Amino acid sequence: MTANELSEACDIPLSTMYRKLDRLTETDLVRESAEIRESGQHTTRYARAFTELSVAVSDDEELITTIERPADEQTADQRLEELWTELREET
């Protein structure tokens, strides 16, 4: 989804959504991708970067988090290569 779509779906201000997306992207819980429209404009789309997230509390009252990610997750270089390939195909 785009930031605008997420802002509307969550019923929070767009500026707040951008701050939250920045934090989620920095922690690798959300990934960004660029979408090029036919008009030549681009938009950023955000997608979940994990398959499962578990949070538990230990007997010592410490938080334990486990994050499972897709096995075929692409690196930044692979995503950039894919983007350039898509751009070449569209032009």
Give the DSSP E fraction (strand runs of 2 or more residues).
Answer: 25-35%
Individual helix count: 3
Strand order of the largest sheet: 1-2
Most strands sheet: 2 strands, antiparallel
N-to-C CA distance? 25 Å
Radius of gyration: 17 Å
**Low-pLDDT ranges:** none
Order of helices and strands: HHEEEEH
Helical content class? 25-40%
SSE-based structural type: alpha+beta
Shape descriptor reads flat
Number of distinct beta strands: 4
Oligomer: single chain
Average predicted local confidence, pLDDT: 88
Question: Can you describe what's shown?
Answer:
- This protein has about 90 residues and is α+β, with helices and mostly antiparallel strands.
- It has helices at about 5-10, 15-25, 75-90; strands spanning about 30-35, 40-50, 50-55, 65-70.
- The chain has a two-stranded antiparallel sheet with strand order 1-2.
- A hairpin with a 5-residue loop joins strand 3 (about 50-55) and strand 4.
- Helix 1 crosses helix 2 (about 15-25).
- The radius of gyration is 17 Å and the shape is flat.
- The model has no long low-confidence stretch (mean pLDDT about 90).
Keywords:
two-stranded antiparallel sheet, 4 strands, two-stranded antiparallel ribbon, 91 residues, alpha+beta
What does the secondary structure layout of this molecule look like, with pairings?
Layout: H1 3-10, H2 14-26, E1 30-36, E2 42-48, E3 52-57, E4 63-68, H3 76-90
Antiparallel strand pairs: 1-2, 3-4
